[in-house]
Amino acid sequence: MPQWIQWVLIVAGLAVIALLARFIWQRTRLLRQQSQRNARTEAFQKQRRDQMIESVRVLAMSVEQDQVEYSEACLRIKGLLDHLAPELLEQSPYRIFQEMHDALEHMPTHQARQDTASHFIRKLDEQRFELEKTHADAIRRAATAIRYHQF
User: Fold this and answer.
1) Of 65, 66, 109, 138, which has the highest C-beta tally within 10 A?
2) Rg (CA), the chain
3) What are the Cα distances from residue 7, in Å, to 10, 11, 13, 90?
4) Is 102 exposed, middle or buried (0-12, 13-18, 19+ CB in 10 A)?
5) How many helices (H) and strands (E) does the chain have?
């Protein structure tokens, strides 16, 4: 084989090696970046979950100390449990949060409540207070249980 063909093949081989080395370097860099993004995402999700757990515990403590209306606490705890552990809403004693949500979901909130006639709001509030009174013991038991639940 002539010497010039050998040199062409050597140069071609070196070019292929260089291209493969660059490809490997780029892929390694991309994998490292992806790994860092995943780590940041996991850290953010863990922090968010920890904050939600803390919110559930604060709400539960507020119920135990009668610092919040039971209906409000049930709605908020139910919303948080939907993200943290939705299976708990089907278990006793936590089922009361779902039951209260279902009983209150037809009632207007926020701007819709402000736009509703005051006599209608009074009737709805009476219904809400009656629900709270009826389920007060179950709500307090569930609040105590959720406060000490290990998520």
Assistant:
1) 138
2) 30
3) 5, 6, 10, 75
4) exposed
5) 6, 0
Please check the confidence at residue 127 and state whether its pLDDT lies above 90. Answer: yes
- 49-63 pLDDT tens trace: 999 999 999 999 999
Residue-level pLDDT at 109: 82
Q: Is the pLDDT assigned to residue 117 strictly greater than 90?
A: no
Structure letter (DSSP) for residue 102: H
Mean pLDDT of 41-56: 98
What is the value of pTM for the model shown? 0.79
Q: How far is residue 100's CA from residue 74's CA, in Å, rounded to a whole number?
A: 6
Q: Where are the beta strands (DSSP E) in 28-113?
A: none
Structural domain including 87 reads 3-147
Q: Which class for 103: exposed (0-12), middle (13-18), buried (19 or more C-beta within 10 A)?
A: middle
Residue 132 CA to residue 127 CA, distance in Å, equals 9
Quick one: how far is CA 115 from the chain centroid? 30
